[in-house]
Structure to design on (457 residues):
């Protein structure tokens, strides 16, 4: 869900951007046979919703994870006023890319979900057939799909800029060796068809002038020299902190951390958020060679706390993760190592909105703690899907008999595919309350495996 280094820009990078005429063009030195090989490899390996790297590493098991239709909730989805992950879905601060320039065949990969209308002025053309095709764009220096790698020192003027970025000190413009686009199968859910899944591949030639270091990754769609407006009206740029590390050679050590359970505006803040900040400072200042020369950090879950006994009212619960995310992002982006985040149960508590009787009482409403107050306050802040109380109340009425009086979900859902790669072959498999044992649920395929569901949520 959710970071910056120091060097001098080489003029050749800026010149490379100007080498393309208004006709469709590709990076210099591109090997057409390698692109064809990558299309064949990915077509044979990846299901329509998956992405693996040219090296065969699985980087995204679900390219649709940031879609509006997959994130329908009352909780605000914006952090500091923006959707942190929307169009640039890989790499991110929690799922970075590692590029080793000394490795033969190494490449840097980005994955985007882009509205068709957003690229219309670039006259997109698809070449080939099958589930993955070559994407050609008609680009100029003022109309293009642009990519930048940004060092920590240039972050304020580049990573976080809401206007078009230019190459400069600490800001490296890079051109993809190839753009690939996923086919849109007939059985793909309609909500997903509004955007294309686009892969941008940067081979060693495209990355040759980028020094070793840790970089923010920025993508922007330009129209007439300015950041284009997306169909929603929002500017079509996106950047992720600490999303790429470039190595001159492989490094063998890593740092591991787990269970920071960051809580904000509660009694636990000094014991959680303060400790995360201390961890970042210690890692950055460490002289221990195993830390200083580590390739990356692995985080084994429970980055968030998801509230505390103090945050049980609907109004507090609805805003808990947003407040925690803002504090966590502001802290982790200062790390001098990339970090791979994995989920713990605290990172994804879900409340259906069926609040306990105490919080549906007139007393709760008098103090502004009612569920309706939470929905009314939060809904207008949400760019999508934009819940209104009438819609949410209808949902509560429809599910009241299923949920009882506790704010919990009564089944655990798995999505199972038959391996054919067809969207229609994905079915929802629910494990009902009868097979629940305490807070654990048994997996019918493996009765010995306990699946933790979370406390009352």
């Amino acid at each position: 869900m959710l970071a910056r280094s120091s060097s001098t820009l080489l003029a050749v990078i800026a010149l490379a951007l100007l080498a393309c005429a208004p006709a469709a063009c590709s990076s210099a030195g591109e090997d057409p046979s390698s692109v064809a090989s990558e299309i064949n490899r990915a077509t044979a390996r990846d299901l329509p919703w998956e992405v693996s790297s040219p090296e065969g590493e699985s980087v995204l098991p679900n390219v649709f994870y940031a879609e509006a239709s997959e994130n329908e909730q009352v909780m605000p989805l914006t952090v500091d006023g923006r959707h942190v992950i929307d169009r640039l879905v890989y790499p991110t601060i929690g799922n970075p890319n590692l590029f080793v320039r000394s490795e033969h065949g190494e490449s840097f990969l980005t994955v985007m979900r882009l509205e068709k209308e957003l690229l219309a002025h670039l006259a997109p053309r698809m070449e080939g057939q099958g589930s993955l095709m070559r994407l050609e764009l008609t680009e100029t220096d003022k109309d293009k799909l642009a990519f930048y790698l940004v060092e920590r020192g240039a972050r304020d003027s580049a990573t976080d800029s809401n206007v078009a970025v230019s190459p400069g000190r600490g800001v490296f413009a890079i051109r993809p060796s190839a753009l690939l686009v996923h086919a849109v199968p007939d059985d793909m859910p309609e909500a997903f068809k509004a955007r294309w899944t686009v892969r941008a591949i940067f081979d060693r030639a495209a990355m040759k002038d980028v020094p070793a270091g840790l970089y923010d990754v920025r993508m922007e769609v330009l129209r007439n020299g300015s950041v284009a407006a997306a169909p929603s009206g929002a500017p079509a740029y996106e950047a992720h902190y600490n999303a790429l590390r470039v190595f001159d050679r492989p490094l063998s050590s890593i740092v591991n951390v787990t269970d920071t359970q960051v809580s904000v505006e509660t009694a636990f803040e000094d014991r959680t958020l303060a400790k995360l900040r201390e961890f970042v400072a210690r890692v950055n200042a460490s002289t221990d060679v195993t830390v200083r020369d580590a390739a990356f950090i692995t985080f084994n879950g429970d980055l968030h706390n998801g509230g505390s006994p103090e945050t049980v009212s609907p109004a507090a619960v609805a805003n808990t993760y947003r407040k925690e995310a803002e504090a966590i992002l502001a802290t982790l982006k200062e790390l001098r190592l990339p970090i791979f985040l994995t989920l713990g149960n605290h990172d994804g508590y879900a409340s259906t909105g069926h609040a306990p009787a105490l919080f549906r009482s007139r007393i709760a409403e008098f103090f502004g703690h009612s569920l309706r107050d939470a929905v009314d306050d939060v809904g207008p802040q949400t760019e999508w899907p934009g819940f209104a109380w009438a819609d949410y109340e209808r949902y509560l009425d429809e599910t009241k008999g299923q949920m009882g009086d506790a704010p919990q979900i009564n089944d655990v859902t798995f999505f199972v595919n038959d391996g054919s790669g067809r969207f229609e072959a994905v079915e929802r498999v629910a494990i009902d309350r009868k097979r629940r044992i305490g807070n654990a649920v048994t997996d019918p395929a493996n009765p010995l495996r306990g699946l933790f569901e979370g406390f009352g949520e």
Summary: The two ends are 21 Å apart (CA to CA).
